[in-house]
Amino acid sequence: MHIGIRHIPGGYLIAALLLFRVAFLMLGDAFINGDGIIYVNASQQIAETGKLPPARFQSLGFAVEILPVILVLDEAGFAQHYPTTRVTTNGVAATTFHAINLAMDLVIVLVLLHEAARLLTGRIPSWAVASAFVFLALQPFTTSQSNFIYPDHACMFFSFLGGYCVYLGISGRGHGGWIAAGSLLLGLAGLARFDMIPVCAAMLLAAYAVLIWQVAQGFRLHAVALSSVLFAAPLFGMCIFQYASTGEIGYLRTATTQNANTLRGGYLAWLRTWLVLAQDHSILAASETAADWPGFSIDTYPTRAFTNSSERAAIAATLDDWKLHGYSPEIDAQFLGFADSNRTTRPVETYLLVPLMRVQEYWLNIEGSRAINESLHGMFPANAIAWLRRLTVALAALGFGVSWIGQWKIAPDDASSYGLARFLSLMVLLRTGELIVLGMALAGGLMESRYVTVAMPAMLLLAIVGWKQLCEMLDQHRSVRLAKAS
């Protein structure tokens, strides 16, 4: 397998654009904030004591993954852990992880460019090929979390490269060792984000199905066994580490103060029965104890949150009671009653329309402009990213149809990039479906648009497939028109 820049048309120009990409994004601020503080502090504790902290709602697997970097940095001996209420900007750790994230992003982009070079052949205009390469070299969507120490970026890297390596192994483009390497990477993706374990496991099972389908060529049982062990190794290793450190079986505990669904389950259940948009999420989903929290005011909630004026008045009274006396079991029961009422009186909206509209919010948001705005100090028009994202998703939808319908004769183990796009499209489908379920059942998936970042490279590859199909359709239309004119 060759992914060198010289194998890509206009390679030197693309190389210059990639260098510009990395240099430009490094100009932006790097942060240790939010959940990033939890992961860094946990990793520091491991470095100091050799043991994991007690299990919590967020998986600490990412803290284990960043441990080698923490050990190398040893920033001032880490005499003091980062305060959980303060944002740390551009420190040694934050800047180092920013650079590491951009390096991982560079690998992803090189793989995408390599596959685009395989796809964009035939009767594709040179301007269309150049446009696709420039887009991949400059697109912001895979860098949206690059300046944060969050698990999403690492999970995106491990899951995309893992799926890619597994495909190389089952398609014949690489030897059997690729399946083993890919399985380990998928296991590391699950270690970074616990909720990605089912998605990565399903990807691996799909690969096993292909291996079974290849039984006429010799079913590779040893490949299945080895890859299963490598996939499970990081996850079981984490369980063993947690048990050795704290005596706990497993490394997640849902009944903690970090789990808003445990503390305010009724309120969040009500929120999940109507569409909470991205701009609403940061205000409503994480309730504050401060008396001036906007969520205490009924005017903060949009009209779509209420069935009628009487329900609005009842919810306003509940919010007032919450503000005066704190969140109590009685208030939780009242919110659960509002949620149950919505499920009964508006079942189609609650169980069908809201999840579908929420998926729109996951994919058609401005995620990606954040890193650019940090480099330009907030001067970049976010709407430009929003329109670019919509165009990308539209092309990816076309590419999905081509991969699964237009190229249906391609065997599951075909070594073409169409086969790769079809295989990696499972990441998009599985992650989207999982977030629908999480959004309805758990607070974790309510409206965190960054959660789809892990599937963004697969979406970009599908977009390239869609771009090729669009160019071929335009060329065919032009040929027909010229034939009629002659």
Give an overview of the whole structure:
By secondary structure, the chain is mainly α. It folds into two domains: 5-252 and 366-478, no CATH class; 266-344, no CATH class. It is 66% helix and 1% strand. It is built from 20 helices and two strands. The chain has helices at 11-26, 35-49, 61-65, 67-73, 92-119, 126-138, 151-171, 177-192, 197-213, 221-246, 260-263, 265-271, 278-284, 309-325, 329-345, 347-363, 369-375, 382-406, 417-441, 456-485, and strands spanning 31-32, 88-89. Strands 1-2 form a two-stranded antiparallel ribbon. The chain is globular. The protein starts with 10 loop residues before the first helix and ends with a helix. The model has no long low-confidence stretch (mean pLDDT 85).
List the helices and strands and how they pair.
Layout: H1 11-26, E1 31-32, H2 35-49, H3 61-65, H4 67-73, E2 88-89, H5 92-119, H6 126-138, H7 151-171, H8 177-192, H9 197-213, H10 221-246, H11 260-263, H12 265-271, H13 278-284, H14 309-325, H15 329-345, H16 347-363, H17 369-375, H18 382-406, H19 417-441, H20 456-485
Antiparallel strand pairs: 1-2
Helix pairs in contact: 1-5, 1-6, 5-6, 5-7, 5-20, 7-8, 7-9, 7-19, 8-9, 8-10, 9-19, 12-15, 14-15, 15-16, 16-19, 18-19, 18-20, 19-20
